[in-house]
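User: Fold this; tokens only.

Assistant: Input:
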Amino acid sequence: MVDYRLKFDKHIAEIVHKAMSRANLIIKSFHSHDRTLLTAAYVRPLLEYCSLVWSSHTQCLINEIKKVQLYFTKRVVGLRCMSYDKRLLTLGLQSMEYRRVINDLILYYKIKNGLLDNDIRNNYIVADNLNTRGHSCKLIK
């Protein structure tokens, strides 16, 4: 879902709603307190599917997406009093921000090495100006 300004706000709101509904169903349906079972049936695929296309850059949308993981990890038995970072560490999960960066790096690797079906390498030029700081793998649109 894209609005006339090419923003994905409604799409993100719908994804967050579906993910929260699924998280509630998982928590209410499973009577087991096994943390690995609950995290295996997690809703992260809903939040990450095609996230490279609709990746949010505003803090309010990032917080909306993060809210699902905050809610889910707090509802797992025995983790309610822990901080968010400790809950993620205990469950062996990564933050949504970290996952977004990893997905962006994977896409960059695929573009750089021509591993995509569409060859979009022609749309980007590798920066040849070596007078700048950093590395030589900078892309210019």
